[in-house]
Design a protein that fits this description.
- This protein is 38% helix and 18% strand.
- It has two domains: 112 residues, Rossmann fold; 139 residues, 2-Layer Sandwich (Alpha-Beta Plaits).
- The longest helix is centred in the middle third of the chain and has 18 residues.
- Helix 8 runs antiparallel to helix 9 and helix 9 packs across helix 10.
- The radius of gyration is 22 Å and the shape is elongated.
- The N and C termini lie far apart (74 Å).
- The strands form three sheets. The chain has a five-stranded parallel sheet with strand order 2-1-3-4-5, sandwiched between helices.
- It has 318 residues and is an alpha/beta fold.
């Protein structure tokens, strides 16, 4: 007689809680095949399921729900007498404009946040540890200047653009570091060309959702010492430490393959991705002014269009 045996690759069991039928459908569709998903329409139903089903090891929950909202669900989970329930990671799915609700959710015990509107990758990213790909052709560096703020290991609510002055300050530190050690340096700029149209037609939160996913792709392709800065609503500026022209072009080609001509899938629509790249190679034999470099980058991205409409080599190229 055949007996069942444990599956070493058994999918983790996840509870997705939302009063919207559309959101529950999107959650189950996006996570299908990546986990064993259970659905609940409000906090009370979710609480009952958590007490009955000891296989659930991750919870996604909305905050604004009837009967029992996400805040009360969080409080019950964190105060549970059952250690298994009390220690469950709980990811709150919320809009970027709900800052007060997010603050309260943190006080209630939220583990992290996923911003609405979400893509399949937003949800799937929470299921497994983050693994960045490394550039094998470039050496691992030590003694690099530390970033002003450490990039979180788990993305929280998406940050709004920083002042260009912050990027320029970081760039000035980096140029000085590379000059002292006679290292090559490259700067990559990635512009989402559909940002304004998406913002105008559907609202900023949709445009920022696309930027959030572009940011994730950039982080996956970079090393820890490279830094990503959102220098405008539709623009990322990336400082590529100890990176020569060949490696910068290889990275740009790889990003083109992942981004250009693709579509991002949300619960209610698909968004075509149209991006433009610009690459600068500062001349470290002279004192390049970071603000001038950034102004030149803006001209490259917004004003100059190449034959391919893709890679532009900065004013110091050649």
């Amino acid at each position: 007689m055949l007996q069942a045996i444990d599956q070493p690759n058994k999918l983790r069991r996840v509870l997705f809680v939302d009063d919207s039928r559309l959101m529950r459908y999107a959650g189950s569709k996006f996570l299908y095949g990546h986990c064993d998903i259970a659905l609940a329409g409000d906090g009370r139903e979710a609480w009952r399921m958590l007490n009955r089903d000891d296989q659930i090891d991750l919870v996604f929950t909305d905050l604004m729900m009837p009967v029992m909202d996400g805040h009360e669900l969080l409080r019950r989970i964190r105060r549970s007498s059952d250690q298994r329930i009390r220690q469950l990671p709980v990811l709150v799915v919320t809009g970027d404009d709900e800052s007060r609700a997010r603050k309260q959710a943190l006080e209630d015990g939220a583990s992290d946040f996923i911003a609405k509107p979400f893509t399949p990758d937003d949800l799937r990213h929470a299921l497994t540890p983050k693994n960045r790909s490394k550039w094998q052709s470039r050496p691992n560096l030590h003694g690099l200047p530390s970033e002003p703020e450490t990039r979180p290991s788990t993305p929280g609510p998406f940050q709004q653009p920083e002042e260009p002055a912050g990027y320029c300050h970081r760039l000035a530190q980096t140029i000085s570091f590379h000059q002292r050690r006679q290292l090559e340096l490259s700067l990559l700029h990635v512009q989402f060309q559909g940002y304004r149209q998406l913002d105008h037609r559907f609202g900023r939160h949709w445009a920022d959702a696309v930027m959030r996913n572009i940011d994730r792709i950039l982080v996956e392709e970079l090393r820890d010492e490279d830094s990503v800065h959102r220098t405008a609503d539709d623009l990322f500026s990336v400082i590529l430490m100890a990176t020569g022209r060949q490696d910068a072009r290889i990275l740009t080609r790889r990003l083109r393959e992942r981004l250009v001509g693709t579509r991002m899938h949300f619960s209610s629509m698909e968004v075509p991705i149209d991006v433009r790249f610009a690459v600068q190679f500062p001349n470290l034999d002279k004192e390049d002014d970071p603000e001038i470099l950034f102004d030149e980058a803006l001209r490259l991205v917004y004003w100059r269009v190449s034959g391919e409409g893709a890679v532009q080599h900065g004013p110091t190229d050649g």
